[in-house]
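Hey all, quick one. A colleague (J.T.) asked me to put the dihydroflavine-adenine dinucleotide job into the tracker so the inputs and the structure tokens live in one place instead of scattered across chat threads. No bug as far as I know, just bookkeeping. Sequence used:
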Amino acid sequence: MKILKETVDTLVLGAGAAGMMAAIFAAEMGGRVVVIDHAKAPGEKIRISGGGRCNFTNRHATSRNFLSKNPHFCKSALSRYTPEDFVALVEQHKIAYHEKTLGQLFCDHSARDIIAMLLSELERKSVSVKLKTRMTDLEKTPDGFRVSIEGDGERSEITARHFIVASGGKSVPKMGASGIAYDIAERFGHKVTETRPALVPLTFATQDLEAFNALSGVSAPAIVSHAKTSFQEALLFTHRGLSGPAILQISSYWREGDDITVTFLPEVNVFSRLKDLRTARGKRQIQAVLSEELPTRLARYLAPENVFTGNLADQSDRQLQRLSEAIQNWRLKPVGTEGYRTAEVTLGGIETSGLNSRTMESKTTTGLYFIGEAVDVTGWLGGYNFQWAWASGAAAGRAISAV
Ligand code: FDA
């Protein structure tokens, strides 16, 4: 087979959120930029994100919303490409969007609008995107990289001055995740911190699951806590365990063997409320009263009829205290997570100590960059992970276009 040879300024591995953004910026001053991806389409995770509407950023994103061995590393990139910068691009492309809650911005119509926007920017900057293409070899040369690629029955050898690794983490292999970024990093002398599934549903032992089965589909606002970290959002019972935003958030902090605590009716002092209700509405059945505050199936689970018999007036202070503990201090021990199959992101990754926080360039190898989810910077749920992808991509792309 004939091997085509091509020389470019920048080669980007991965046509996801970070890779496309980096390519747009790298091509700013007219440099030749090529993006390769083994998937059939670019931005597959953007397409499925935010329930198909893509929570593309969060207005309030700061370094406090990210987990990393070095919590300061993300500050530089986040401050130089802000949520307002991305919103300005979205508005320039006349994409309708709305704020849902807590600063989370979503497309009104479809996540595909964001992919189309990025593709039109890439086209405008004459960036070539080669899909269904895999890297078969990577070599360092004195002034850059030689990368062998194969796709569509063709083999090529690309010589590039800059090589940006934007191939993401390990989450959702079905969508193209491969973990190749970690192998490349280690090959060039970088350390990779422990990686684990994050923003992922938690799973439980059989006896808990039997209870959750009866509650499957029930959702309620709650505070979910692990050690000193808490999130107040919705919690969802599923037949596999617990999910919903509050659980996904805490999953990034939870470790095997740890408990989590669930507090329903977080704005209420349940014990004193129950005592007041006992005085005011003592003739009512306790489960019926609780069902006015919580989903009926949850109320019946937390106040089982064989334990809380009779009316409210029949309940002692001790019983009411016991019930309020069940509602507001429910300790649970997950046994695991649903894993990378459903995790929205990968926690951990390429150690930030090996990267320049302003440019994302490798400290071991000139011209090599790591961006996006592959790096040990992991956002909370709520548009933060895309903001990191845009910001780290912009940091690398800008550094290259300025050379
Ligand atoms: P990303 O994974 O997007 O891109 C990597 C690219 O590299 C992919 O196109 C892949 O095919 C390619 N690649 C991988 N290995 C390769 C190889 N060996 N050769 C060639 N190409 C290779 N975040 C958020 O902020 N708001 C949201 O609404 C959501 N919603 C959401 C829903 C779901 C279901 C998931 C799974 C994730 C989210 N996220 C999210 C997280 C968000 O999708 C994630 O943080 C970013 O996509 C990360 O961007 P990257 O570009 O780093 O990786």
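Adding what we noticed when we looked at it: The chain has 13 helices and 21 strands. Residues 29 and 402 are 8 Å apart (CA to CA).
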